[in-house]
User: Fold this.
Amino acid sequence: MNRPECTEFLQRCLPKLRLRWGGYRKVRQQVCKRLSRRIGELGLSGLPAYNNFLENHAEEWPILGSLCGITISRFYRDRSVFDMLRSTILPLLAERISGGGENELRCWSAGCCSGEEAYTLQILWKMSVIPHLNTNLPLRIIATDTDPAVLERARRGCYLESSLRDLPKEWREPVFSSSGTCYTVREPFRSDIEFARQDIREQYPDGPFHLILCRNLVFTYFEESLQREVLERITERLVPGGILVIGLHETIPKGVAAVIPYDNARCIYRTTAS
Assistant:
């Protein structure tokens, strides 16, 4: 399968899955490789044959949709975002929750991939936030994704060194044990994280949450009407004044009134309800 052939196929099929080609332009090769494997599994001769297969087998469309998941993740990805969470957002939420008589900070990591984002939050919490607060408030995280393979990697908590390249180096020793090429998250940083298989287009954890991270997923790959539908479901699960974090290079659809930028931050929002 050559690149133009795969590009034409994606441009035609992605809208039928309520996905947008613009989000895939730079990462399409990951999907094209999966398509090639799928075509081989079916014993088909190429994309034209796969097109015919799709027309005659409606049950193949969800499988095609699953091939379109992008799995790019690492610890402390987009440093400025996590710096803001570390210095401002998490301490603010902790103080608000403690003052309001609640006993835990609840977070949802949506589209968690292989777990780096959820573990990074727990690392920030235990290494940087809690030591400076007069509280032992737990951070409870539910991390969801559609792909069972990446969720299994997340539960194992074993990563290559390249996944750690953005994490502050002084945290490597206390957070990870190393064996060969595998850096494994130590037990204290695994606690209070639940990994669950959910498709954000159809399923949502109960909530409510004080903090939701939905980065580099909905507002990159979904068509706008689907973005609006998902965003409505997300904001319903935020407490009044709760925080939503999206991708550093993402924007939410115009005209949405349920959230507003937090302190002029580029990708951090808070609910308008108080």
The two ends are 53 Å apart (CA to CA). The mean pLDDT is 93. Residues 105 and 231 are 21 Å apart (CA to CA). The chain has two domains: 3-67, 79-271.
